[in-house]
Protein 1
Amino acid sequence: MRTNIRQRCDGVTRRDTLRLGTLTALGLCLSDLFRHRAGAADNKPVRAKSCILLWLDGGPSHLETFDVKPDAPAEVRGPFAAIATNVGGMQISELLPRTAQIADQIAIVRSLTSPLGEHGLANHYVLTGYKPSPVLHHPSYGSVVTHVRSGRHVLPPYVAIPEAKSTAGAGFLGLSHEPFMTGGDPSKPDFRVRDLEFFPGVTDARINRRREFLAEFDAAQAVVESTGARTDSPFDQAYRLVTTPEAKRAFDLAAEPAEVRARYGSRMFGQSCLLARRLVERGVPFVTVQNTGWDTHDGLVLRLRDGYSGAKVGVGLVPIFDQGFAALIDDLHTHGLLDETLVIAMGEFGRTPKLNVRGGRDHWPRVFSAVLAGGGISGGQAIGASDRVGESPQDRAVTPSDLACTIYTLLGIDPRHELHTVDGRPVPVNQGGHVIRELL
Amino acid sequence: MNFSLLLCLALFTGDADRPFDFDTEIIPVLTKAGCNAGACHGAAAGRGGFHLSLWGADPAADHEAIVHALEGRRINLARPELSLLLAKPTGQMNHGGNIVLSEQSRGTARLRDWIRSGSGRGAPRRLTGFELSPSQYVCDSVPVRIPLHSTARFDDGPSEDVTDWTIFTTSDPAAVEIDPATAVAQVRRRGRHVVIARFLDRVVPLQFIVPLADAPVDLSTEPRANFIDEEILRTLTLLRLPVSPSADDAAFMRRVHLDLTGRLPEPGAVETFLSNTVADKRARLVESLLSSDAFNDYWTLRFARLLHMHSLPNEKEGVRAYAAWLRGELAARRPFHDIARELLTATGDSHVVGPANFGRMVADARGHAELVGRFFMGMRLGCANCHNHPLDKWTQDDYHGLAAVFARLERGRNVQVASRGAVTNLRTGEPAVPRVPGERYLNSDGDHRVEFANWLTGTENHYFARATVNRLWRAMFGRGLVEPTDDLRDTNPATHPELLDRLAKDFAKHGYDIRHTLRLIALSRTYARTDASVSGNAADDRYYSRAYVRSLDPEVLADAIADVTGVANVYADHAAGTRAVTLVDPLTPSPSLDILGRCSRADGCDENATVRGGLPMQLHLLNGELINRKLSDATGRLRRLIADGKTDAEIITEFYMRGLSRAPTVDELARWHERVSTGDAADRIERLEDFAWSLLNSRRFMENH
């Protein structure tokens, strides 16, 4: 850390410096922040220090969320109406009233397109920016970020709540860049992260004694090898995490005021979003919140709006998403974190333009939407459009590779930066993608 | 026009007898400048509308692309310097790839002269040889500057100096740097460094050896058990590396137990061994381990990993039959080339015929060819799927030809050879012709798999024996003589090339008996060295002047924890007391093994796989059940020893013996005694638990050394 101090002349502001104290303790180290900035794609200021990916697993219907077709025939329009947002001319689904009020903060990409309509293949493409290949498992965004910004940290640099698809993993970068999965359900009162709490009967005092005993064993070894102790062993990292109450508190949602928790909604998705905010607040560079159930082949009304039959207040996928997402954006804003936190909400593809006979929609990758907010992007806009019936991109087709290129650029990672497979093959972070300029 | 062209020829080529040969004189210029690299015009789709074959593998197509495509605009015969081929790379015109040739360079001059001469294809001639001088360079100190020279021989005349067009690639630029313009090497660090030289399709290695110390070391009196020691000591003498002494009996016993059986020795066995005074007791120990059931279990798992053994969806019978067969073969001491032959040629009901599952672990014939290359030949053929291997001799024809050998195999439950089936050669777009890679096409009508197996396991074939002994070596030392072990090629030389040769020949001579080679290694003086360094060899990680410390495999670690604590791990659908090393199917559910970093074999998991462990593993060891529950288990070793009224010293000694395979020293015993002794019974239990926990988390326990 000291060796990098003199580099401070290259553009780190006082605000950054103040923040670095926290980052050094909890998330990034100083050198990494510099490296991260040095690797920026061009000279544009990089604002996003962290990224929260809200992964809507299964493929959310674009037509029932961010790409409504109120003037289309009923079988395309679907069961829900469109509402206005606080951005003139931008309409979204009536199931997203809270999001409509923060629409000026978000950018909707409505012309994403991919040829892959099978879940596994599609989420590999959308989560890595690479089409699946038989020879290479590409790393996902979070793993690339942790790889580029390796360093001494207390909190794991890539956290998945509660878990991540294998395609959201490290691929060829290897196990040490896999996401740290919290497991469990953050909305449950007894929520705890696996192996983060002491084993029953093991106290603080005993953990310290174990560390001391372990040091005794390993110090004897270091003498034998005459190499000195290793600087930052995995044990030290684990010890720092479990014995740093401030770090562990990141996972303790009970520390949030009840009124804040309520704003996110009492369900798993909302509380996961809140947990994600607590993590990025403490310098964690990448958090994935996984929300499952979006593979709605039947019963759109039940699944997307009601949640259960006869519900008076809808608690289906979209209202739950609406509450958690809008609360997250608001809360990040309140904490002054929105500008430096890129939030992305998306799934692996959209749904068929025409309702099927079971009142659902099937897989449709030819056009779908993604939503971005924060991280210095220009909000209040829709980029690209689907055609009249939400079947194909009408203009400005955007590929998952373009989106990946954009995400990396926003995070200050040069898309051309080369990663290496175990057998030494160089693979750029992104290949063939083009930055979505409208977002910058 | 004709006249002026002739004049140009006479004026500019300098060799009036012969026009430029595009294939061997122009392509190297483009390759040297990087034009046909994968990141530039060599990409499959080309770049900027201009496509060249990768590394110039297809000169006819390249000549066409340069001279005729784009309506010939890349060449301007009248004013060569205005040709796109020159104007772009020299920066006269805007070039996406920036300036890659200076106007004054010899490359520019040659391209200009070639264009001026009419940009013909020239007289076809073939490269017959490519050599470096020196090819090995031993010097005494660093830094040192060494001018390199390369010569090529063609079938049409005398050899030519091609230094200007040779590409030198150094694997460690901090150690050796080579100026591409002058071909002068700067050696900056001591040690042994390898540089790869490429010209056209030839790649040859160049070695620089700089001893690691100024003063020679005298190893002439070091004992030698067999040729392994001769070879190792020869290299150590050359590099002036001193050696660590032999490990004591306890350390040797723990190491050889873990390496050969994946298990820690029992305390009773340790005591018996230590008190044994017979001169050949190490040989007897090795013999008993090689004959044990534990050996068969452990090596079944080791080979299963390399074979990507795993269960298929809703079909556990196949992997069961496969693993049972492999274990039976190992137990019966079947020669390894017979095992190989079975794997290559077996057919039948894969739920019954174990080796028939070999081809079911991969998706198709190409996957089959790659697995064959990796497992039997230690080679990565995958690169040659889409382009000729950039660092090896393998061509696309070799790759698709080998895939074609397995093209007719039906990979359902009943594995059989169909009457039809082909793979497409991506280079030609035609069905690939079955081929022994690098050797010959198989045109007969018979089962090509048999012909391939004959070739692979023939005594004149060294791939198989070299790949196998290299893996056995890695199993015993933690690194292969060639690393990675699935990347044997001329341009990735062994740390000890002669030793690898001798081991391979010896393996073949002794009937491809893996136990023979393992015994040879286990009884060498080299294997028996301590891991503690002596002055001058602490940094050695590849010349075997000392033993290298390695992490225990996840399965071995899980078993070791169960053995030391006396509480077995529980695996779903398996009998109580099942050992992790016998769970050959990596899809057997076990959160603990996953956290410890077990490889998911469906993805393929070579020995050189990824970094393991990390934070989740440490958290699990610290706070999880894997260790904690076993320490507090009333039926576990610790609680039983306490209940039996054992003293602190007895308990400490027992855990040392079980976990570290040695008794604590007097000093250690005293210090631990001081730390755990207390008058409070409950406090004592906690302190002993913390002691045992620390031992199980210590590097000495978690590693093989």
Protein 2
Amino acid sequence: MRDAFLPGFTTELPYIVADVEMVEQSGLRIVARVRGVEPEDMELGMPVEVGFEPDGDALAIPVFTRVTP
Amino acid sequence: MSPRFGAAGRVAIVGYAHSPVSRLGDGPLGALTVKTVKDAVADAGLRLDQIDGFTTGAVFPSSSGQTVTDGLVTVTADWLVDQLRIQPRWLNGYQGVGQISGATVLATNAIASGSADYVVVHRAMYNPPGRYHSNPMRLAEGASQWTAPHGFWGPPAQMAMPYMEYMKRYGATREHMATVVVRAREAGSKNPWSYWFDKPITSDDYMTSRMICDPMSVLDCDIPINGVAAFVFTSAERAKDLPHRPVFVAGSAQGRALPDNGVSAWTLDAIEQGGRRVGELLWENCGFGPADVDIPQVYDAFTPFVYFWLEALGFCGPGEAFEYVQGDDVSPGITFRTGGGASGNGRMHGVPQLLECYLQLSRRAGDRQLANAEIGLACQASPNAGGVVAFTS
């Protein structure tokens, strides 16, 4: 993402979001940020694992990091 | 192969009008619509009191959350007939994706069935002040609670995801798309009504344009504008008495929105599978195939749609479109070679595709008239979710 369509994202730009499919359930997908990967290193089918970041005071949101298979 | 569509060749476009376009409009959109519809009826050689059917797809395709006021931000067929003081025999609105193709199919069926004799299909497009897809929302409800916390919002982000998937899967690059956009802008630069009239660009302009959601830059999205177009339809029989050469509806196909349309990312697989289904339906309904088409007006409001449509309709194989469009031998009647489509003219939804189809097949395309153009397609939206109508001269 290089553009903020919603309030509150401008200072974070640019960042990576990916469409992540769960290994545990085929077809179950979630769009979420990917941390710690350079854009040019993103690949289709790249294995990732979930973690959670605080988002404001009341929420935690899933973010993904790359794992070595 | 005989067409499965029973009304093939029995309904025709007989006239049109396109308003001037501007970035923010010079007055109420409804007033411009009334004028443009009257111009289209006159162009067809008819009087307003002869028009007994009206339809449109009136959606305001912005995800900005703006209040949608009929007559200002959108113009429905209901609003239009009230202003024209007409009580039509047939009045309808298309609710799905692919508003021009959908409304065209409704109009065609209404005339073929005798529900109406003369139908106006109009499309009124509004560009709000501020940014087209910026949404001031502070609370993400419903399905958007899953995506909004990641700033993932609106059509450009949604379409960037399957386009990135396409590039990674097949090896396409932004340099490949530069060919499409430069050619579209070249065509649009010669089109008097175009927002981009007399403003061609170079490959370098495209490659250095501001990125929005990789791999999409601002030039992969058509520019929002204010404008109205209207087309007049009637039966092939009645068309014989009218001034312009009629252009006949040969068949159509429509997709359907994905279950998560509007919130989540589309996958390339879903676009390809849904698109192939639309392609199969189209050729079955028309009784001809891609090799017969002279002017394929594929949709290009987001540029990857050009690839998706060409592959869905079988002009080339899956994953081949980005190379197919590079050649100088590619159909001279393809969207970005003559009319300029949406990326070459501005955000008029499926109007540029339908208009170029009509102008070429009715021999009204002026300087860019192609010799021997007999069969055309007008596509709108993504092939899996939108629609396509085939026309014959």
